[in-house]
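Thought: the user wants the 3D structure for the chain below. I'll pass the sequence to the structure tool as-is, report back what it returns, then summarize two notable features.
Action: structure_tool
Action Input:
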Amino acid sequence: MRVLFVTSEHPGLLFGGLGTFTREYVRELRKYCDVKCVYFHLSDERIPLPDETVDYVFEPEQIFDAFTPEARILESAASLRKQLEPLLQAFRPDVIHCNDRQTYMPFRFEKNVFYSSHLIFTDLIATSYLDDLYFQEVKVERCAIENSAVVAAYSEFSAKCVEKNAGNLKSAVVLPLGLRTEKFHRNFRNDGKIRVCYFGRFENVQKGVNDFIYAVNQLGPQFKKRNSVEYFLYGRGQIDVGMDLSLFNKPEFLEGNELIEAYADADIVVMPSRYEPFGLSGLEAMASGALLLVTTGLGMDEYAEPGRNCIGLPGNAHEMTGVLRNAILDLPKLGLLRENAVLTARKWTWKRCVKSHLYFYRLILQERIPFINIAYEKNVRKILSAYKKANDVEKIHAAEEERIAFTCIYGAMSDFERRKKNLVLTGNFIPEDDVFPENFKFVSVLEESDDGIVVRPECFSFADESFDSVIVCGAWESVLNPCSFLMELERVAKDSVQILYKTGKPREWQTFQMESERDWIDINQSGWRFDMNSGYGVEKLKHTVPFDSVVYRKKSELKEVLNEVIA
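Observation:
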């Protein structure tokens, strides 16, 4: 697969998370694909040269004086497209991955664009703060969201912002980011000091740095002295004039090993953001074993769970003071939160991040785009969220029902049928590797895979007729679009599809149940035929778990079965 990755933040000119994403993501992606990385130089800084990450550097040419922001954006896009054309003709990418809104416009009319949305926060900022150019960039973002093949966000919070910006006409898939957890460690100091740190841009509208400074000043010098506390500000930018920094060490901008060591020395990291699409610095703090104090209800909710691996911060500076005070005083008692934080951070690898993106790259390559948008519409995330929040005992019970049901089916299969290539779609049941033969592939439609995604039944990455048979056991109940699901089942199955559907009371994450045979007739719009209450192990099934069964067969196969009965 050939992937053109385009970014507007060069890893060698690190300003924020986009540069880090580019460097680490491209490095990992090259293990799986043929990748060309392109950087658009759109700033007044020195033009960097290609390096180990970036293969090409392009700078838009200004042909005429553009008097409006719209004209400047269009002129820039036209210039970059002209420069890109030889590369596009020679490389012929299967997927064009635009890593932010500033990279999208030269590819406006391409059908294979994968768009990463990293930053939309207009709802949170007073209009007086923004200039005309920014509002034009918001329009560019909306254009990218509405016209790209796939739009990726990196938190549920960010996905909702994406969909709102697009007038709820387009959904985003939520994919994991990555972290080089092996770089981060803990320095066990014996100096008796408690280090409380802030990492991020010195900016208040989004990052809330002034709220942290206010909370520290409210605690006062006596509290600092009495509890041997040190306060640090690590980042880039200009702190607002008038903010009292007398209780802080001198603000610094760190990168590389110095930044890693600062995280390692931190006992408490405060992340008071007012808006954050994901908040990578919070995850870095967790990986370092620091106690994270973080604003809830934002992108950090993807990894931060107050009471389990962090402490939640309130939305105003006054209340933040009390939370910070208690965290400092109770720090020796909060070791379990810090241990859980390290364990949480370890799963956020760049390998997992890249593989989740590759899943959708393949779907773009297969031209499965309409099905992607059906399978990953925003209502699906409500189902997945309900499942994630459901009682663990209930989820275990559901998985056990699915296990028993499939075991009944498997026990009724002949040796010949067991040797066929079978796809088994479950709700949340995933058997141990050695329980069933290797030709049985199990896919959960509720549990996140090792690749960091949840495979939805309305859209598979499998090729046509990849399996002899498909068995649905627990997946039917979380379907939002049953017709699309049946189309996918019929596409990937050569011979038959057996669907087990729940007859008992639905669980809180289950949205779809068949009520009568008429329902099956209504949704059966294909050239297949179905048999009610048939299939492997049906009789035994009815006496064990609350499932019933229907079998779909191709017309030709059904005719052969009937001829055998007549004979």
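Final Answer: Structure generated. Residues 122-131 have pLDDT under 50 and may be disordered. Residues 2-174 form a domain with the Rossmann fold fold (CATH 3.40.50.2000).
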